Amino acid sequence: ALNGFVLVVTSEGLIFYSSHTIQDYLGFHQVDVMHQSVFELIHTEDQEEFRRNLRWALNPPHAPEGEPSAEGGKSLSSSAVTYKPDQLPPENSSFLERSFVCRFRCLLDNSSGFLALNLQGRLKFLHGQNKRSEDGSALPPQLALFAISTPLQPPSILQIRTKNMIFRTKHKLDFTPLACDAKGKIVLGYTEAELRMCGTGYQFVHAADMLYCAENHVRMMKTGESGLTVFRLLTKENRWKWVQANARLVYKNGKPEYIIVTQRPLVDEEGGEHLRKRSMHLPFTFATGEALLYQSAYPIPGFPDPFQSKGKTSKSKKTSHSHGGRSQKDGVDPSSLLGAVMQQDKAVY
């Protein structure tokens, strides 16, 4: 019911808890942020402000110049202060109240990649941590920030209306589905187990949209974001559902780790209009489209010898193949686009 999400951050800067609604505002799944350093999510210019608000004394000794902010949790734990309960003001003290603004990384469709959040709450004792000091003695419970995080700008009526339809999916780097939120399960009809069962996820995409999606997939691997992509997804009822999607890479320790896709269902008329616009100009250059997506040593029945290159996905390198005898006839790479089409039931077309 909140216009925001709940966040609990320990004195070391670890996210102890986040409500699942963090996904509606930042695009990160709840389980992907819990027990991670909060500084991986915060704009570098705002990290010191967040550090100050984690300490009960608002004028702590300044962190040394040039402290590596990318280290996040490590650089914080070295400066985290362990307090004895008698050093702290009583828990109902106004000294422990907090209200400040920080920019958080945001995977949703906004231009800057960050969302300014107002964090309002207080420092409270976080019990049950069972932490021990270096000499092995038990440490008393330490203060943690308990806050409600709300966007600085209230959402527009249009955003509120369309938010009810938007769903998100999580994928491996080759687009294999890993997770889907509750709204996605309603729109598509699959359970998470059914989505993860087979293939790279392209088997849920309409054959006429596969190259277009793969081209934007390649763009996302290069730039971090796919841009708006309109295509058809196969539902559990064997019907095609038009969606408008934007995919973003999520990095961990500087390396891409997984993909989050935000998807909005469209009515058939909108999808058809996008398809007409797409077919008016050729979306693929030979260098990045068909040549890369279909390269393989498999001969395809019905294709003359010089065009015996079909089957691999967009990440395949150029493969040398002889035009002499017919090479292996034992099937198609199931992770290729052609393999994805062949997994589909002909009846759905």
UniProtKB/TrEMBL annotation:
Residues 58-85, 305-349 are annotated as: Disordered. Signal peptide: none annotated. One of its GO terms (molecular function) is transcription cis-regulatory region binding. Residues 1-61 form the PAS domain. GO terms for cellular component: aryl hydrocarbon receptor complex; nucleus. GO terms for biological process: xenobiotic metabolic process. It comes from the Eukaryota. Residues 312-326 have a biased composition (Basic residues). It is found in: Nucleus. Its main location: nucleus. Keywords: Activator, DNA-binding, Nucleus, Receptor, Transcription, Transcription regulation. The keyword Iron does not apply. PANTHER family: ARYL HYDROCARBON RECEPTOR (PTHR10649), ARYL HYDROCARBON RECEPTOR 1 BETA (PTHR10649:SF18). This is Aryl hydrocarbon receptor.
